[in-house]
Every structure is written in structure tokens, then in C-alpha cells.
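Handout, page 2. Input:
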Amino acid sequence: MNKGKAAKTKVKNKAPAEVQITAEQLLREAKERELEIVAPPPKQKISDPDELADYQLRKRKAFEDGIRKSRTSFANWVKYAKWEESQQEIQRARSIYERALDVDYRNIKIWLKYSQMEMRNRQINHARNVLDRAVLILPRVNQFWYKYIYMEEMLNNIPGCRQVFERWMDWEPNEQAWFTYIKFELRYDEIDRARAIYSRFVTVHPEVRNWIKFAHFEEQHGFIENARDVYEKAIEFFGDDHLDERLFMSFAKFEENQHEYDRVRVIYKYALEKLSVEDRQELFKQYSLYEKKHGNRFEIEDVIFSKRKAKYESELKANSHDYDVWFDYIRLMENEGDIDKTRDVYERAVSNVPLGKEKRLWRRYIYLWVYYAVFEELTTKDYDRTREVYNFMLKLIPHKSFTFAKLWVMAAKFEVRQKNLTAARKLFGTAIGLCPKEKLFKEYIEFEIQLREFDRCRIIYQKYLEYAPQNCMAWMKFAELENILGEVERGRSIFEIAIDQPRLDMPELIWKAYIDFEIELENFDKARLLYERLLERTEHVKVWISFARFELIANKEDAQFGIQQARSVFERANKALKDCVEKESRLMLLEAWLEFEVEQGDEKSLAAVRKQMPKKVKKRRKIKTDDGSDAGWEEYFDYIFPDKEAQPHLKFLEAAKMWKQKKEMGTATAGPSTSGSAD
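Output:
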């Protein structure tokens, strides 16, 4: 029986219900159904003084018990005082507030309730005393001051109200307190007093917005000169280090409202000069809009110039060694036409000396100096300053590490334009002694040649050749100068010294120049000896070809003899190049010889040369990498000369070539018959 009952009460489905009931829902339903109804307290009617006294005694005892239990619970003190006030026991209520202040005199609510109670009961002097004590003990609590001022103004005690304000201002409160004082004076049309308060206010709280409000105050009341004076004092007050674009924009807007457009333009330009690039973005936009509204073409261009200046200044602030930006900035300033400002930008630009002593870092930098010098010479016509620029530039460059010949040459040419040849020679001499370069020697020589100082030219050439004895062009120019001056023996001696140098950069040029020198003088025997001396040093194919052509020129009067001499040179050359590794050289010689025979020879000599022409053969060879491994095969062309064909392997190659030709011919004849049988 018990088992059956337990089976019936057992919960079969233990899954959670679909709708869950929360504690909040239970409470809400209880409130809706008003399940907990509390009966209101019974009303008590007091009919005689004894009952009133008994009632008051019980209430006071209850309040005192509550205060004893929790002295710091100021709600009990307030309730107690309000109850006494309701019983018209003002003195008792005042005593309760005093007791509460003894517990905690910093409690703001107690002071406010205390003063409100006095005002409700028209106890003005008591309320004034309470507030006076409050602002004296807690002067930083603005509520006391506001309450005190409000009470005095409601009593129409304006002098007293002003006196409270002055006491408050001595503590230098926040901005809102000052604005309250100003509005108070404006309510009674005391403009001068309000102005004086503003003057004190902007010194206590010297923010830009407060100066702007001061100026707006003057403008709104029609004191235009005073408003302008406020703006000017504000700019002077903040100085150059703490200026703000908002001040200038407000000043410009004020002047624009007064139709003082020139003043507006001056303000904007002054601000753009004084403010940094980051601090004038919005101001520049306002300036652009202003010029579009009131400016002409020149003013608009001036705005564009200013905008580009700002852009360059920001880029240079990020990287002062970006010389390309300096070039653009300088070009902009030159177009603007202000010489002093342009010079100032040049000075700033050249002060950014490259950090390292590497020539690649200085290549762009020196052009700043070059442009600076050109600007001073051509634009400002200040030649003394130009000379100073050149001198300072030349002192700045570390000539022991590297130099720039262009700068020395420009400085010297500047002195020439000033007709100061001594200074120009001094510059060239200093440059050659301090940091000799080929360009300096060439320019110095050209300078002295133009002045026809040939003895100086000889001395400079000697220094030049001591500095660079391997320079063939220097030897050639020196000899050419002597030849022009008619000093043939000097020229020949120079050529002799030149070809005896152990190392030359282009020896073929000096030899050719020497030979041409002798040919020009028609000293063919000496020229021929020079060819022979040159062939002792080198057997280059071009020397042989030039030698053969020389023989034709040297024997113009006896043409046949000249042809025989040239042919003899070709034969000598062919024998000399027979065992040359570079077969292309011999091929070039034979081609030149063949061309010569076509022009000057007969059939017999032409056939003899043609028999010596090589055959072009395609060959294969292995390719080796740097580490010696095989990299495949490549095809190349080789030249086989007739005098080399006697070798057995060459005969084998010739037989293989003939067999291949026969095979190709047999295939060509068998092709048509095969196709016919297929049809």
C-alpha cells in the first residue's frame, strides 16, 4: 500500500518548466494583488495644552533617542529641527542646527537647511549671520555664496550684494562665479563696473576664450575702440610663445564686421608669421575664405604663397636636410620678390650642413650655395656679399676628404667678372695646391690662354702633368699649344716624354697624335720611324692598317711606289698575325687588304688576297661554370685560313662536308619519284 502511494507522488518529469518564475515576478504579483496591506497609523487629536505638552515630550524623547543612537545621521537632526519649526519653536530648531554643526561643521546640507529655515521665518539677520559664518568657514563652497547673494538681491540690498561678490572674488573662484558677478552688474546697467570685473577676470583666468568674451562684451555694448584694445592687449599678454589661432580669428572677424579690411589682412599675416604650422591650420582656411570674398588677384596669390610656405615649413620641420624642399621653397621666395625674406630662407637652408663627410651627401647641398651666390650677384647686385658667400662656402667644404671643382671655378669667374684677375689666380692656385683636380687645371689653363699668358700656361701644364702623368689628353693639349705657338721642337719633346711614360690611360691616342703631328709637318721619315717604334711595342691590327694607309699618303708623288710600300706593310702584317690567337684580327687585316687591292691593285694581286681569306665554320664547345662543372654546349663560329688546311683533321672535315652535300642532292632528286609512286 505504501509502495503504491510513493509511486503515485513520485515526480516523473524532472525537466525544467518552459516558463520560469523569478523572485521579481513574485514580488510584482504580490504588489498587484495587494497581499500585504498595512493599516495606516491612527490619527491623534490634541484637545488641551496638557496633551500637547505630553505629545511634544514624547516626540522630543524619540528624536533625542534617535540622535543618541546615531549622532552622524544628519537626517535625524534635520527631521528634529523641522519638527520643532512646525511647532513654532524657532529657538529650539536653531539650537538643534547649532548642535548639528558642532558635530560636523563641514556638512553643506546642514548650513543650507539652517539658512533656509531662518529665511522662511523672516529672520533676515539670523539668516545673514548663518550665511556669513558659512562663507567664512567654507569659502570654497559656491552654494553658500550663491544663496547669500540671492538673499541680498531679493531684499534689494544691492550694495550688500556687491559687497558679498567682492568678498567672493577675493578667493579667485571659478569662471562661472565671475560671469555671475558680471551679469549681476549688467542687470543694473553698471557697464563700467562690469568692464572692471572683466579686467580682473582675464588676469585671474587668462584663457583665450575669456579674452574673446571680454572683447565681445565691449563690442556688444558699442565700445569698438575698447574691444580693439582688448584684442591688442590679449596678443601682447600671450606673447609670441603662447599665441592661439582662435584669438586671431576672433580679432579678424571683429575687424571684418567693422569693414576694416586692411586691418584684417594685417592680422592674418601677422598670425601666419608668429604661429607654427601645426597651430594655424584653421586660421589659414579662414584667411583663404576672407581673400576670396574681399581680396583681388594679388591678395589671392599671396594666400597661395602663404599656403605653400606653410607646406614647406611643415616638411622641413620633419626633415631639415631635405634639400629638394629647400630648393622649392627658395624658388617660391624668389618669385615673391622679397629680398630680405629670400635671403633669410637661403641662410636657413645653408645652415643645414650634411651630417657625414661623404661626397654623395654634399652633392645636392652645395647647389644651395651656388644658387645663393647667383642670387646675390644677379638679383641683389650685392657683389661684396656674393664674395662672402663664395669664401664661406669654400671654407665649409672639407677639401682634405673631397672637393667640388665647380665651386672654385665659379668663384674665380666671379672675380674675373669683377675685373679682379689677381684674386681669380689666387683662387685657382689655392684650389690646385689644396685639392688638385683635372677640371681645375683645365679651367686655369683656359683662363690664362684667354689672357694670352702662355708662360703661365706652360707652368700650369707642368703642374698638371706632375699631378697626372698618365693623362694622355694633357700631354696632347700641351704639345698642341706649343705647336700653335710655333715651338715645334718643344712639341716634339713633349710627345717624346709622353710616349716614354711607364703608364698611360690611352696610349694609342698619344701615339696617333704624335704621328699626325709629324705627318702635318710632312716629316714622313720620322712618322715612319714612329710606326716602327710603335710596332715594336704592339702588333695591333689597327696599327698595321694605319701604317699601310700612311704609306699611300707619304708617297703621293710616286703612286706605284706607295702601293708597293703599302702592300709590303700588309704582307708583313699578315705574317705577324699568322700565329695570332685572335683570328678576328687577321680577318680584319685581310678585309682591309682586300679593300685596298680592290681600289689600288690588279686582278692578280686581288686573287692572291682572296685565296688567303678564311672559311667560316660553325663549331660546338663545352661551357664551364666558375666551379668547373659542365653547363652544356654552345655554338660558335671559327675561321679556317688556307694555310691551316694542310692539317689532317681539316681534310676530314672537308670530306664530311662534301658527303653531306651529295646526300642532300640525292634526297632532292628522289623526292618527286617517291611522291608519284605514293599516288
